[in-house]
Amino acid sequence: MSAQRPKLLVVDDGDRHIELMHRFLRDYDYATRCDQPGPCWTCERRKGCTLTHAHDLVEAEEVLRRSDVDVVVVDVAFDLPAARLAPSDEPDLERRKRLQGLDILRHLRRARGDLPVVLMTSREELEYEDAAVALEVDEFVTLAGAEAFDARALGLLVERIVARRRELPSVGGFAWGKSPAMARLRRDALVLARTSLPVLVVGETGTGKSALAEHVLHAAAPRKGAYVAADLSAIPETLVAAELFGTARGAFSGAVDRPGLHERAHGGTLFLDEIGNLRPDIQRMLLTAIEAKRVLRLGETGARPAEFKLIAATHVDLAAAVKSGAFRADLYARLNPSAQLALPPLRERMIDLEELLTAFIQRTFASGADRALYTEFAARVGLPEPRPPEVITRGTPRGTPETVQFVFAPATVHALRSHRWPGNVRELSQVAASLAVFSLADALRAAEEGRGSGKSARSIPISARLVRQLLSGAPAAEPTGLRPHKTLHAVTRDLERQLYQQLFAECDGDFSAMARRLLDAATPSAARRVRLRFNQLGLRVRK
């Protein structure tokens, strides 16, 4: 985020939108392709100038390489020759032009996943499948044609994004990555954290629901009270009510005066993990306490204040549980499911692998016995005050490293990317810590024996054998692939569909990369064949 005024980059093949913004939105700076200090509307060379904004993807990348931009504003339709259009698998040239903004958006999402983008269009609406692609955009505005109104609408969207971005540096302790799904989650989480609304966090086991609750939703909330957490699946069923609501002396045999989680969270945050495990009668008591903002201890008649930010998490489908009668519909509605935060499984965010490895390895050596091990090795390779370690997953180190480096060879990275990670980021954190500690211990032993103690020893290769060994001991993924159908043809089609979905996630939506995996070829024709089959299986480019 810029220190002063937010800076916008406009990407449009024409001049209408930039003229509109220069006329009505002068509280922003604009990234241009010239070296003049600006602003453009005061420049003597303004008339006929074509350097005020980017006209295509190439020019946009040129500006982004040399300028810090806070928000990119992109038109949807472009009337450009084919040579100037962004790369696409779409064979229809007119369709590519009409939806060029979506191809630019897709490229920006892959290259700069955390860069906010606003899409503009003068059409009433996009086709459904194209709008689905646009769901990865931060904001979407349909311009009505009235200049002042359009500028005001656009300005408000930019302000909304800028306000969110200003808060992001204060939120730490959580490994975000740069995948589009996590970028959206980050922005939505910050907005919900600052409200009084309950937050429902969903996702597979190990995706980081409790870390998101503590390090983001609680940390960014304006409340100053304590963070109180409970895993409801780990509390015996007969003790859940006492743990949640507290007890009065004599409420039952052995009961003493004791506050429950609700009281302890007063003025702060209450995190209830695996809320789907609650019995119906406890669900009713919880709903009453949430709505009244007061809690009644077991065995008492007078309610006590208990106002808090409620965060609930589950790995089960609560909507299905409501339909089956296992979960109360009124409590589900009170958890604000329309604004739930969905954490994606690790296998769908492999683009974040390097950042996650770095975060987990640095966390491993941040304190305790592992920190002492790291410091001892660093001293032996000429780093008496070592910085946090680096992780290299692309290429080989060059020159003399300024800190300890853990180097993953391409085959090792491929093994990590190909693993299904049923335990998600929790499993990855354990594997990363084990890889780093074992590798560092081997390097330290060699240094102690007089081998590998120079500056060149600062780079520690991660053994492919060690990776295979750790992954072979990982829990097997749940056998969800094979499902019964009425015909064998339906079975094979379902399996093929799942394979394409998996490859699409692993390749980050790149059909050329999918073609390389399936057909051992990455030519445009191979990519088109893969995309055609992808569509024939009833899959969409974006969900």
Element layout with pairings:
Blueprint: E1 7-11, H1 16-24, E2 29-30, H2 57-66, E3 71-75, H3 93-98, H4 100-111, E4 117-121, H5 128-133, E5 139-142, H6 147-167, H7 180-193, E6 199-202, H8 209-218, E7 227-231, H9 240-245, H10 261-264, E8 269-273, H11 280-292, E9 294-295, E10 304-305, E11 309-314, H12 318-324, H13 329-334, E12 341-342, H14 353-364, H15 368-380, E13 390-392, E14 405-407, H16 410-418, H17 424-448, E15 459-461, H18 464-472, H19 488-506, H20 511-519, H21 524-536
Parallel strand pairs: 1-2, 1-3, 3-4, 4-5, 6-11, 6-12, 7-8, 8-11, 13-14, 14-15
Antiparallel strand pairs: 9-10
Question: Could you list some keywords that capture this structure?
Answer:
543 residues, alpha/beta, Rossmann fold, 4 domains, 5-stranded parallel β-sheet, globular
Radius of gyration: 27 Å
What fraction, in percent, of the residue positions are helical? Answer: 40-55%
Biggest sheet strand line-up: 2-1-3-4-5
**What structural category do the secondary elements indicate?**
alpha/beta
* Overall pLDDT confidence: 84
CATH class of the largest domain: Alpha Beta
End-to-end CA span: 30 Å
- Kindly state the number of beta strands: 15
Number of domains: 4
Please name the CATH architecture of the largest domain. Answer: 3-Layer(aba) Sandwich
Largest sheet: 5 strands, parallel
Can you identify the CATH superfamily of the largest domain?
P-loop containing nucleotide triphosphate hydrolases
